[in-house]
Structures are given as C-alpha cells and as structure tokens.
Write a structure and sequence with these properties.
Number of domains: 2
Number of strands: 10
Radius of gyration: 20 Å
Largest sheet: 5 strands, mixed
Distance between the termini: 25 Å
CATH class of the largest domain: Alpha Beta
Strand content: 15-25%
Bound molecules: 5'-O-[(R)-(carboxyoxy)(hydroxy)phosphoryl]adenosine, zinc ion
CATH superfamily of the largest domain: ATPase, nucleotide binding domain
Helix content: 40-55%
Structural class: alpha/beta
Strand order of the largest sheet: 3-2-1-4-5
CATH topology of the largest domain: Nucleotidyltransferase, domain 5
Shape: globular
Length: 333
C-alpha cells in the first residue's frame, strides 16, 4: 500500500510517499524557519501563510519523486493534531480536497504518533510493544506503545518541553532559533561539569519532567555574570545545560522502563537528534542489555514520511475521517 503523508503542524511543510509504512519513496520538506529566526521563535501567522503558498508544490514534488500519481495512492494521511491551529488547517484542508477529488481514504494522524513512527522507517524490524521517549519542541512524553495505534502516556513535562528549554537557553546565549542544534554542537567542545545545575524532580510523579527551573537557573547564571561584567565560556554553559537536560530525560526514561519491565526502548522527535542523548542511551542500554532504537537524524525533525508511515497503520486499523475532519491544537496521543 502506498500512502501520501502531509505535515504542516509547525514551520515545516512536508509531504512524502511511503510504501507499507516502512519504505520511503519520496520525502520533500520546505521550511519557513529562516523567517522565524528574525523573531526568535515560530510566528504562527507567517507559518500558516508559507504553508498555504507552498503546499501544492511540495505535494506535487513528493508524488513526482515517488514516480506515482494520485491514482496509485491508497490513502492520504495528514497531521490533524496537535500543533499551531492555522498551520494544521492548511494541511488538513489540502488533504481533504485531494481525498475528495481522488476518492481516496483520508487518514487523520496524530503528530506525536508520527514522530514515533519515524522509527519504523529507520528500523525495519521494530514492532510494538515498546516504550518511547518522545522529545520535541512542544512535547516531552514517555509513552507506552502497546500497538501501532494504542498508546498510553506514562510521563510528561509539567512545564517546558525539552526542545523548548534548549531553544530558550540557547537564545540567552545569543544563538538563533531553533538553538537546540547549535547548542548540541557547541556543547561538544565544553566541560559538562563546569556549572552546577539543578535536577528538578516532580514529587509523586517519578516519570514526569520539569525543565523550566533548569532553564531559569542557566539564564540567571548568565545574567548574574553579565551584571558583573563577566562573560562565561559558552561551550561550558552549553555542555553543562545539555548534560542536565539529558540526565533528567535518561533517568526518568530508564526508571519507567525498569518499573514497567520493558526492555525495548525507542526515542523520537526533534530532540532525539541530540548527540549526548543518543550516546548516553546507547551506553546505558548496552549495560542493561536493553534494545534501543532511534530514528535516523534526517527523520528526527518534522517530515511527511513519518506521517505516511503512521497513517498506514491507522488505515489498517480503519481510522478513516469524513470530510468534516477539523484541525485540533491539543489532543491526547
Ligand atoms: O520534532 P520537532 O522538529 O518539532 C516539534 O514537533 O516541535 O522538534 C523541534 C525541536 C526544537 O526545539 C529543536 O531545537 C530541537 O527539536 N532539536 C534539538 C536538536 N535538533 C533539534 N535539540 C537538541 N539537540 C539537537 N541536536
Ligand atoms: Zn514534531
């Protein structure tokens, strides 16, 4: 089965054709990130306008690259939630138009489920059940993936998402949006123990995260130094902050795995590209004899292939929408 996947939940307009949930035939991504850099974060109105401008070319290109026409497509998957509402609406309405005109099933796809599905593309042998750490710019969840379409949240962030914390801390250090990647690169040159930062824990919820205190701690460290006219070494700040965030993620994830007796662990989302997170989990999982799966870096960020992959499994489960499908800004997984 060939599925066309369409993604427009944030600042990437993306489309892809994937065969049987696993084989990518095309993958086209257009991003408006350069414009958002001017404002230090995603401006929803600009994101929606750019989606509207380029979605038809992106989808056409994805079909052309896959050497197929809509006639050869078995279903149209689209991210309908969660995300920026105006941005989601562009993809949802475009997909509705295509599904109606081509008489193809319209498959509503949850953005976080799609991030998890990026692993089915990169790891052909991976099958549920497993536990997944989903870490992106908007979410930080520990998810029990019971089947391709049945999932339960075990832990979540109480405030900032991990990616959001990286981006905000990076901005204080003068790095442009989204700072997560720049911070990761800079951190490789620094000492992770140069600055002592807290490890916030959420009482009575051992799998939940809290990153806002950690973010405030690094911001205060930088501001206090600058008031004294001091400039702190950037690489050490980045390395210390990255170490602290990754430590929180790894600690809670491994605790959840142990308590739930799960030995297959998976990571997903933009922050799953983080080099320290990948290294530390590789080491810990090797020591504990757990299996660890990660998406290839090119599928960590938002893309259409992960949508097409998840939509394949949603379609097998008969999750088909009517043409009154709406976009939803927040929706449980
Ligand atoms: O999944 P994603 O592309 O979009 C959302 O669904 O939010 O995630 C974007 C987030 C941004 O916060 C970005 O800074 C972060 O992922 N990110 C990283 C890295 N690459 C992207 N954070 C830390 N280290 C990275 N290497
Ligand atoms: Zn995402």
């Amino acid at each position: 089965m060939k599925i066309l996947g369409i993604e427009s939940s944030c600042d990437e307009t993306a489309a892809s054709v994937v065969e049987d949930g696993r084989t990518v035939l095309s993958n086209v991504v257009a991003s408006s990130v350069e414009e958002h850099k001017l404002y230090g974060g995603v401006v929803p109105e600009i994101a929606s306008r750019r989606h509207a401008e380029c979605i038809s070319q992106v989808v056409e290109q994805a079909l052309r690259d896959a050497n197929v026409t809509l006639d050869n497509i078995d279903g149209i998957g689209v991210t309908h939630a969660p995300g920026l509402i105006g941005a989601l609406l562009v993809g949802v309405n475009f997909a509705k138009g295509l599904a109606y005109s081509a008489k193809k099933p319209l498959v509503p796809t949850h953005h976080l489920r799609s991030h998890i599905a990026s692993n089915y593309i990169s790891n052909k042998e991976l099958k549920p059940p497993f536990m997944c750490l989903v870490v992106s710019g908007g979410h930080s969840h520990i998810v029990m993936v019971e089947s391709y379409t049945k999932m339960k949240i075990i832990g979540r962030t109480r405030d900032d998402a991990a990616g959001e914390a990286f981006d905000k801390a990076a901005r204080t250090m003068g790095m442009s949006y989204p700072g997560g990647i720049s911070m990761d690169i800079e951190a490789e040159k620094g000492d992770p123990f140069a600055f002592k930062l807290p490890r916030p824990i959420v009482h009575d919820a051992p799998y939940d995260f809290s990153f806002s205190g950690l973010k405030t701690a690094i911001i205060n460290t930088i501001h206090n130094a600058s008031q004294k006219g001091e400039t702190l070494p950037k690489a050490d700040l980045c390395a210390s902050f990255r170490w602290a965030v990754v430590d929180c993620l790894v600690t809670n994830f491994l605790k959840a795995a142990k308590d739930y007796n799960v030995k297959t662990l998976v990571i997903a989302g933009g922050v799953s590209a983080n080099s320290l997170l990948r290294r530390r989990l590789q080491e810990e999982c090797k020591n504990l004899s757990y299996e660890l799966y990660m998406p290839e870096k090119k599928y960590c960020g938002d893309n259409g292939a992960m949508v097409a992959s998840q939509a394949y499994y949603e379609l097998l489960d008969n999750n088909i929408a009517d043409l009154d499908l709406n976009a939803v800004a927040t929706l449980p997984i």
